[in-house]
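Obj: model holo form, ligand = NAP.
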Amino acid sequence: MKKVLITGASGLLGRAILKEFSNSASWEVLGLAFSRSGDNLKKVDLTDNAAVRDTLKEFKPDVVVHSAAERRPDVVQNKPGDTKQLNVGATENIAKICGELNAFLVYISTDYVFDGTKPPYKPNDQPNPLNAYGQSKLDGEIVTLQCNPSAVVLRVPILYGQVEFLSESAVTILFNSVKDTSKPANMCNYQQRFPTHTRDVAVVIRQIAEKQSENPSIKGIYHWSNNEQVTKFAMATKMAEIFNLPRDHLKANEKAPPGAPRPKNAQLDTSDLDGLGIGQRTPFQEGIKEALEPYL
Ligand SMILES: NC(=O)c1ccc[n+]([C@@H]2O[C@H](COP(=O)([O-])OP(=O)(O)OC[C@H]3O[C@@H](n4cnc5c(N)ncnc54)[C@H](OP(=O)(O)O)[C@@H]3O)[C@@H](O)[C@H]2O)c1
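Output (holo structure tokens):
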């Protein structure tokens, strides 16, 4: 049995990763969390370098999936110092310790490292983040690969899946506006997105971890994404259609969204993982129906 340690295991993606590895008899799993620790999740503040070191040295993981981050672009824009400590400082510490312990590290990153002007993006295309969040994740990638060249950086786009509350995902939050037919809802029809199910990303991560143990040439940057291109307006319209709800109040807004600047189309080219036989893609219609049904 191999051991995997997952940071951010209480988060939207981390919960799916925890479930995916826990469902496999081949893995012993330790999930870390912070404010939502408890039950099977160990509380560790990732910005406490010594506590992280102690936890990793004690558990001795074969694989570490580093999913924890501050990922809300507008929060990052307003709190750059705190974000740097978590998204970059904690990542550097984890990458160094994984190197010392010979643990294979998977660092989760984002399509927001690109400026969205020349899609689709291959892993080695030039990043140019438009906002502080994208920059902090890119800085995290750089320290990961500098401190630990055997690590994998896995970039993913906008995520959805089983949510604890609708606003937990930038996709499922749209359902609030879909359901509220009392007022018109302006929905972004400018940014092109590729909503990807957290369960699919979790499968990809487990497959990478399992393949890498036989094939150490798996290292560096990889991309994973669903392949259905939609705007938030199109996602909302699809939600209304699936649940047979009125959609006249949904209005397409062709302007760039307010707040931190976002890339127009940061489509990720996934051909490297496709070529390795890694991947799973849940159709949006199927995945979003399952995610939203509890909130009807
Ligand atoms: N969500 C998306 O659409 C999206 C898109 C592209 C890339 N990503 C990337 O995917 C990864 C996972 O994102 P997510 O959506 O799962 O994020 P999330 O739902 O916001 O979860 C963040 C996680 O980080 C943990 N965390 C925050 N501060 C911490 C600290 N000081 N010490 C320890 N843990 C801490 C949180 O723990 P507690 O809640 O227990 O405090 C939580 O488990 C991130 O690296 C993100 O950049 C996400």
